[in-house]
């Protein structure tokens, strides 16, 4: 079976590079922790939907999913307590969120209530979708722990590290659980084996697109999002491709502009001087020209503002 892993941001920045920058800035680290909290909370809702859609079928899976919700709710709770103690925001994170974009990019898998359901197809699609986001979570949590080991050992950083270290082993368990279920589904028939491979390809592409979209506000982001849509559509049956593109293409331009505007405003309000010296050149794609003047790589400062 194919094994897929999340890729770096635009094949340049890995989780370790990004988190090393994040932990240097208390405000950005809090925003990042709040994004983890938001995703954990959302996972509870999404897993509940799968249980409701199963409607009593696949009892073992329902039991596993119920345990899974219990874990994710605990993670959301730990992160909420942590952010509360740190005096940080517990709001809906600003800008385009990774998990919202991921859900929007998922095509209709027949999971909507009131529709006839192909249970095997629906399960394979759902398990593959859950599995790729869990992998990204593991990658980020382990990179965050690594970065905190190398950061100043302040009481806050120690508290943050302890929290993430409690979550990570359970997330790794979720990835193994998803791999086991997908392998089990693949063994039930040759058709399901093909479906599992196709779903892994599709959701790996969708996940990478959602991840990059949530971080990318530089000029040309619209074009890159359109390219991602084309890539995702190529993982769908030929007859579904035009409808998928027509559904998603019109929202790219206004959404990217809003996302860009909100993050540019945050960066400017926070530090106007740094905004002009580092953020703006990176945003305009003048990174190479600005590199000689800036004490820090412009690509890094861009990631720092958007991570
Ligand atoms: Fe979790
Ligand atoms: Fe998880």
Helix content: over 70%
- CATH class category name of the largest domain: Mainly Alpha
Structural class determined from secondary elements: mainly alpha
Second-tier CATH architecture of the largest domain: Up-down Bundle
Continuous helix count: 12
CATH topology assignment of the largest domain: Ferritin
- Total number of strands: 0
Largest beta-sheet details: none
Order of helices and strands: HHHHHHHHHHHH
Cα distance, first to last residue? 33 Å
What gross morphology would you assign?
globular
Could you say how many structural domains there are in total?
Answer: 2
Strand content: under 5%
The distinct bound ligands, ions and cofactors come out as: fe (ii) ion
Average pLDDT reading:
83
Whole-number radius of gyration?
Answer: 20 Å
CATH superfamily of the largest domain: Ferritin, core subunit, four-helix bundle
Q: Which ranges are low-confidence, i.e. pLDDT below 50, for 5 or more consecutive residues? A: 287-307
Organism: Gloeobacter violaceus (strain ATCC 29082 / PCC 7421)
Protein name: Gll2307 protein
């Amino acid at each position: 079976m194919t094994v897929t892993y999340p890729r770096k941001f635009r094949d340049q920045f890995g989780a370790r590079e990004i988190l090393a920058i994040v932990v240097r800035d208390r405000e950005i680290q809090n925003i990042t922790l709040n994004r983890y909290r938001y995703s954990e909370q959302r996972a509870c809702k999404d897993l509940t939907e799968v249980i409701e859609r199963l409607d009593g079928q696949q009892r073992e899976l329902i039991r596993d999913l119920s345990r899974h919700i219990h874990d994710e709710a605990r993670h959301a709770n730990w992160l909420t307590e942590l952010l509360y103690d740190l005096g940080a925001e517990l709001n809906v994170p600003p800008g385009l969120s990774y998990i919202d974009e991921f859900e929007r990019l998922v095509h209709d898998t027949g999971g909507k209530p009131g529709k006839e359901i192909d249970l095997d197809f629906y399960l394979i699609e759902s398990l593959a979708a859950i599995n790729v986001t869990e992998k990204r979570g593991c990658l980020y949590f382990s990179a965050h722990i690594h970065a905190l080991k190398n950061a100043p050992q302040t009481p806050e950083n120690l508290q943050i590290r302890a929290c993430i270290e409690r979550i990570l082993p359970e997330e790794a368990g979720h990835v193994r659980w998803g791999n086991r279920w997908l392998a089990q589904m693949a063994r039930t028939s040759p058709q399901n084996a093909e479906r599992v491979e196709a779903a892994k390809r599709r959701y790996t592409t969708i996940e990478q697109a959602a991840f990059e979209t949530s971080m990318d506000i530089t000029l040309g982001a619209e074009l890159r999002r359109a390219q991602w849509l084309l890539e995702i559509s190529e993982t769908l049956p030929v007859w579904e491709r035009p409808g998928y593109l027509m559904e998603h293409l019109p929202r790219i331009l206004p959404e990217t502009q809003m996302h860009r505007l909100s993050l540019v405003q945050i960066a400017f309000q926070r530090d106007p001087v740094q905004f002009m010296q580092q953020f703006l050149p990176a945003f305009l794609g003048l990174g190479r020209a600005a590199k000689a003047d800036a004490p820090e790589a412009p690509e890094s400062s861009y990631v720092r503002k958007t991570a």
